[in-house]
TrEMBL record:
Signal peptide: none annotated. This is SRPBCC family protein. It holds the Pfam family AHSA1. Coiled coil: none annotated.
Length: 211
């Protein structure tokens, strides 16, 4: 049983601007601290065997310039790799539009590790989606990353799970629901979305975790 409230509060969330390869971008940023050293966290985020124990089965040519595919999830290309501090990849579902994910690790003050994950998309694409449909899809993306970083925390603490089945558990769905509410506040601050619109957006994000 996880402490859902503490796990939600362990993550800093913000919406901002981050350049992508095609120009201006919009990004979701997550930051949290792990009770493990940088080398261990880097290994957990790059070794296929360990990735399969908290994120999903990964296949491909896992080197700079190579490609990867996470089973039943996204795939992409490895564009930067500066061990053990920085990993940047393209990220797309089913051959759709490429977005960009950057993972940054830094040593914390107590031998721990500060992890930042930033997921960026072209600004014009994100802004148009928000205009047409509201920020609900963005909230769902953020909540999905929250769930992944929770899985990493459990893995680093020696709690074994099967990502394919655990993510559908009532506990994971409850966590995802709370994460969507946490992203609602960050997105409202970034876009000045009305209370009614953000409530509908959170409900849309929550719906994705209930499936």
């Amino acid at each position: 049983m996880i402490d859902i409230v503490n796990q939600i509060n362990a993550v800093h969330r913000e919406v901002g601007s981050h350049p992508v390869s095609t120009g201006e971008g919009r990004s979701l940023l997550l930051r949290r601290t792990y009770d493990a050293d940088v080398a261990d966290v880097w290994d957990a985020c790059t070794d296929p065997g360990r990735l399969g124990r908290w994120l999903g089965q990964v296949e491909g040519d896992l080197r700079l310039g190579g490609t990867f595919q996470i089973k039943d999830n996204a795939g992409g290309r490895i564009v930067r790799c500066e061990e053990p501090r920085l990993l940047a990849v393209t990220w797309s579902f089913g051959g759709g539009m490429d977005t960009e994910v950057e993972l940054r690790l830094a040593p914390g003050p107590d031998g721990d590790t500060v992890l930042e994950l930033e997921h960026s998309s072209p600004a014009e694409v994100v802004d148009e989606l928000v205009r047409q449909y509201g920020p609900g899809g963005t909230i769902g993306v953020g909540g999905g990353w929250d769930l992944a970083l929770l899985g990493l925390d459990l893995h680093l603490r020696g709690i074994e799970l099967d990502p394919a089945t655990w993510e559908g558990s009532p506990e994971a769905k409850e966590f995802g629901t709370r994460a969507c509410h946490a992203w609602g506040a960050a997105i409202q601050a970034a876009w000045g979305t009305s209370d009614d619109d953000i409530a509908a957006a959170v409900a849309f994000g929550v719906q994705q975790f209930a499936l």
